[in-house]
User: Fold this.
Amino acid sequence: MKFILFRHGHSLANQESRIVSSLEHGTKTTGGPLGTGFGLSDKGKQEVRMSATSLAYHIKSYSTSTKKQTQIRILASPFKRTLETANLIHDTLQTSFNIGQIPLPEQALDLRERFFGQFELQTPSDDLYTTVWNQDAVNPFHEKFGVESVAMVTQRTTRVVRSEEQKDEEAKEDMEETFVILVSHGDALQILQTAMRGWSGDRHRQLEHLNTASWRELEWCPELAEAHRRK
Assistant:
């Protein structure tokens, strides 16, 4: 099983430099600069299509070189910007590259955005994020400003990975490889990568940042992978 982390495309929240981190605001189809919620901007839609195209080539290249059939599952945070991203990924893979019949994206609540507490709907987002990240580097369990701790985000995002691995173990065929595309948010994916690398949560900003609409293949570090195999 191969996991692809895919950050949502540039959004209307990014465009306004506004933090939209709660389920209440992130899933709405009203409000925001266009009255349609905080989904993708036009720029975001274009960059998702381009990035999904490169992902399609990556998957096809793998299946060609290994002679394995590939199965694809797409899981997405329930926020509007991530669901729109997931649907664009699905359409690009399905219609443009004929990889095979791909199930529609599934919503996964545990892939939701990290909640930023009292900074919700505030601007400028970069300055406010940095305020939180400085505290993360001291204590990954902190909940200052009412934010969700790094530790809690780690727990729920790794739960998604383990759940998918369990499905794979129950239905594995030797001639198949499953790609699971996890469509989520900057902090959630940054923290998940840190956990799968085996690093402590206070180091999550030390990893290379995932830009909007960018994707990265990820696996457990060898020590954690071996621990999983022993279970």
